[in-house]
Automatic annotation (TrEMBL):
NCBIfam families referenced in this protein's UniProt entry, alphabetically: DgcN
Domain D-glutamate N-acetyltransferase-like N-terminal: 46-124
InterPro entries per record: DgcN-like, DgcN-like_C, DgcN-like_N, P-loop_NTPase
Recorded superkingdom: Bacteria
Residue stretches making up the D-glutamate N-acetyltransferase-like C-terminal domain: 130-326
Protein name as it appears in the record: DUF1611 domain-containing protein
Length: 331
């Protein structure tokens, strides 16, 4: 486990989606966060106290979390310098980026000298199996999306919490760096060698016989040229009985690819069912989750109502409206 409390890193970020890991921790583990670190040119905030490295350590922060994401998951010179400052202040450093902290000699040497730890969250487990697609008992739900970063993790956590509130056993199965930091466990599926993705998910959500649910966090989109492979492996490994579609209304283009439009909701449903049926022939969609954070409350409610009518599925914003309609449909 990564020692808490945390200092959440925003750095020089100007991209709201790009700080999703820090934002997720601020949302779901706020009591474990003492503050945020950002430079003067960062216009974003998590509404936590803005602290220097020294102030955060004085307030008891044990780990600075580099909770940002960028194309390729690399660390620039500024980020490395900030990680050095955190270590010099006496904090451990955790990162979900693809580039490993331990592979930066300056950080590795300093952590060793200070008796501190570097946590690379995007390390997949060793000795992952190859997926088989063989049927296994248990109830599994997977979130899927029209694009990446549309709210799949938020929806997955809300659905797991909703099932538990109804007295059912339910486990949130994290597959990305933010979810893993929130849950304390999981598989960073986008760092798994392609041949082992479906096997990793079979291992993450194994057979169960307690009538409970594994609620599996989706990644990417079947329609995103960069990440469709990860999405496919998740669908095959999850062998889900139930799928929930996630979407952000009004998004201008696929994440990171200007000019490429998002697919339609019905098109996304049909494609995910086709792919999922390879290992789960009876799979079905049980609802739609919209990220309506950019809409006024009434406009969000109206859009969810229209979407439900058009698709014949319950539709909600899980953070603003809850997930009871989807769970009723799941029963």
């Amino acid at each position: 486990m990564i020692p808490s409390p945390y200092l959440l890193y925003l750095g020089h970020s100007a991209d709201f989606i790009g700080i999703k890991t820090s934002r997720g921790l601020a949302t779901f583990r706020r009591d474990d966060c003492v503050g945020e670190f950002r430079h003067d040119d960062c216009p974003l905030t998590l509404d936590l106290p803005r602290l220097s490295m020294a102030d955060a350590a004085a307030r008891g922060a044990k780990t600075m979390v580099l909770g940002i994401a960028n194309g390729g998951g690399t660390m620039g010179a500024d980020l490395v310098a900030d990680a050095v400052a955190a270590l010099e202040a006496g904090m451990n450093v955790a990162s979900g980026l693809h580039q490993r902290l331990r592979d930066v000699p300056r950080l590795a040497d300093l952590a060793r000298e200070r008796g501190l730890q570097l946590f690379d969250v995007r390390d997949p487990p060793a000795h992952l199996p190859v997926g088989t697609g063989n049927p296994r008992p248990g109830n599994r739900l997977l979130t899927v999306g029209t694009d990446c970063s549309v709210g799949k993790m938020y929806a997955t956590i809300a659905l797991a919490e909703g099932l538990r509130a109804r007295g059912l056993a339910a486990d949130f199965r994290a597959t990305g760096q933010t979810g893993i930091l929130i849950a304390g466990a999981g598989v960073p599926v986008d760092a798994v060698i392609a041949d082992f993705i479906s096997g990793a998910i079979e291992q993450l959500a194994p057979a169960r016989s307690d009538h409970g649910w594994d609620v599996i966090e989706g990644q990417g989109s079947l329609f995103h040229p960069s990440f469709a492979g990860v999405s496919t492996g998740l669908l095959h490994g999850a062998q889900a009985q139930a799928l929930v579609l996630c979407h952000e209304p009004g998004r201008a283009h696929m994440r990171g690819i200007p000019g490429r439009a998002l697919p339609g909701l019905r098109e996304t449903i049909d494609m995910n069912l086709q792919v999922a049926k390879l290992t789960s022939p009876d799979v079905r969609f049980v609802g739609v989750c919209l990220n309506t954070s950019r809409l006024e409350a009434q406009a969000a409610a109206d859009l969810c109502g229209r979407t439900a009518d058009e698709l014949g599925l319950p539709c909600t914003d899980p953070l603003r409206m809850g997930v009871d309609g989807i769970l009723d449909h799941l029963a």
